[in-house]
Amino acid sequence: MTCLAPSFLKVPIAHRGLHDVAQGRAENSLSAVRAAIDAGYGIEIDIQRSNDGHAMVFHDYDLGRLTGETGSIHQRNASFLAEVTLIGSDDTIPTLAQVLTVVAGQVPVLIEIKDQDGAMGANTGPLEAAIAADLKHYAGDVAVMSFNPHAVAAMAQLLPDTPRGLVTGSFREENWGMLPSYIRDHLRAIPDFESTGSCFISHRLDDLDRQRVVELRSNGTPVLCWTVKSHADEAVARELADNITFEGYLPTHQHG
Q1: Most buried among 45, 103, 176, 195, using CB within 10 Å?
Q2: C-alpha–C-alpha distance, residues 126 and 187, integer Å
């Protein structure tokens, strides 16, 4: 099995890059990526797909929160998105290829594949193929992950030597009401870890004491966690996880 590179456990991972709108760095922007590199942090980014098949570094399904545009990112082509300015910065929406060129192996990159199915189901493939095409010749430390086990399984077929993992959590109804209860119950139990060939999980901070998470870690599975927002939360996370994904403060650069 392909294992997570040691770099993913050595330095904290900046959630959506080291973003700070007060400093002109929007989340998932090239400025946030460069700031994380300069500070020596790992980088976590989110990937959505443009309507012409490009892997775009963007968290939301809708453009409204982060840009002056409205509507689904999936309805826009990459050339249009490349001109869309991110609120609070001078950056536009980057492609995964652009981010990888900037990082160039300097720090580890953790890629979250956003669910394209709408219900964590099997309607996957085009986004994963776009990500695989961009990663095919990338030589730096990289790993992919998703809440949707089908997306992780697709990456196993496309890039079997690239480490992959599941994004996991409590899947409470108040946060995941769009999903039927049986799907939330399924995902909460993390039953797809072995079948997807995952080698790590990234679990929600306030649910790290879940028995399944404890069992995975005791068996040697690296447990990352999201999203740590203070030194106090970091202290809790360090007791139950192997590394943190953080935002809103600066954690100690090196751990362990």
Answers
A1: 45
A2: 23
How does strand 109-113 pair with strand 55-57?
unpaired
- Residues 155 and 96: their CA atoms lie apart, in Å, by 16
How many residues does this entry show for the chain? Answer: 256
What pLDDT shows up at residue 150? 98
- DSSP lists the bridge partners of residue 15 as 44
Total Cβ atoms within 10 A of residue 87: 12
- For residue 98, give both structure tokens: 């652009």
Radius of gyration of the chain (CA): 17
CA distances from 96 to 107, 145, 163, 166, 228 (A): 15, 15, 17, 20, 24
Residue with tokens 């995975």: 216
The residue assigned the tokens 């249009």 is 80
Q: Is the peptide bond before 252 cis (omega within 30 degrees of 0)?
A: no
Asked if 11 and 83 touch (Cβ cutoff 8 Å), the reply is no
Residues paired with 47 in a beta bridge: 57, 113
Contacts (Cβ under 8 Å, ≥6 apart) of 196: 149, 152, 153, 156, 164, 166
pLDDT at 1: 60
